[in-house]
Amino acid sequence: MRTRVVFNQKGGVGKSSIAVNLAAISAYQGFKTLLIDLDPQANSSQYLLGDDATYSADKPALEPNIENYFEEMLGTTQSKGLLSNAIGSILKNRAKGLQSYVHSSPFKNLDVIPASPTLGALAYALESKHKIYKLRDALQQLEGEYERVYIDTPPAFNFFTLSALIASDRVLIPFDCDVFSKRALQTLIENVIETQDDHNDRLEIEGIVVNQFQAQAKLPREVVQQLKDEGLPVLASMLPPSILMKESHFKNQPLIHLATDHKLTQAYQSLFNEIEQNKI
Questions:
Q1: Which InterPro entries does UniProt cross-reference here (predicted)?
Q2: What is the 3-state secondary structure (H, E, C) of the chain?
Q3: The pLDDT value given to residue 222
């Protein structure tokens, strides 16, 4: 099983779009694939599951979800009245594993564990009870169930992002050719290296995914060249801007299912092929 985390501390760089579309191509290619959404905004969940995963003031988040999983790790289930009931609930749910929180997507071979908007509220309790390795341990139990796992993360270096980095083999870093994104890369890479040193020595930076790349514009070319000159692992397959992505979001259809032959879809296919051939 190969596990990838899509991570950038800066928002608006296409993180969820990249995670979903690579996962969708993986499934389309025949790999049994799981997408885990750790971002409280739940964009990946909504992208794949549509209205079912779309919450509002009068519509609760889809359950079971990744927040429910972490609640079980804390023992904060609804059965809190009697001590015996609480202990029984904890023991029962610990045996369930991540598989109990999986939803089938409308697409063959592609499953989802959705996020919820209140996930972030659990971070302090999870940190204080040293639950940072629980996601890694749970994913190890899915070995044989899935061939590829993609994890979408919040735009912050927090408990959930660190859990994902500890649980993963590889990191994909979305980058949108913005000067501010370039300045933030150093901190991001330092965080990944620290995670390698302290928690997960098998973790590798698989590459920087250049998103919204306008090949005819001077500034994006210069920024990308600067990254390469600094020795950063920029992936050769770059993603062009296209209105098709917004249509894909609106229709809750990944590009490979919406428009197989479109140039943006083909760019994603090229990116998928490149990372699959990567032997790191």
A1: AAA_dom, DNA_Partitioning_ATPase, P-loop_NTPase
A2: CEEEEECCCCCCCCHHHHHHHHHHHHHHCCCCEEEEECCCCCHHHHHHHHHHHCCECCECCCCCCHHHHHHHHHCCCCCCCCHHHHHHHHHHHHCCCHHHHCEECCCCCEEEECCCCCHHHHHHHHHHCCCCCHHHHHHHCCECCECEEEEECCCCCCHHHHHHHHHCCEEEEEECCCHHHHHHHHHHHHHHHHHHHHCCCCCEEEEEEECCCCCCCHHHHHHHHHHHHCCCCECCCCCCCCCHHHHHHHHCCCHHHHCCCCHHHHHHHHHHHHHHCCCC
A3: 87
Whole-number average pLDDT of the chain: 88
Statement: the pTM of the whole predicted model exceeds 0.85: yes
Nearest-5° Cα angle at 170, 275 to 232: 75
pLDDT band at 81 (very low <50, low <70, confident <90, very high): very low
What is the dotted CATH code of the domain comprising 6-276?
3.40.50.300
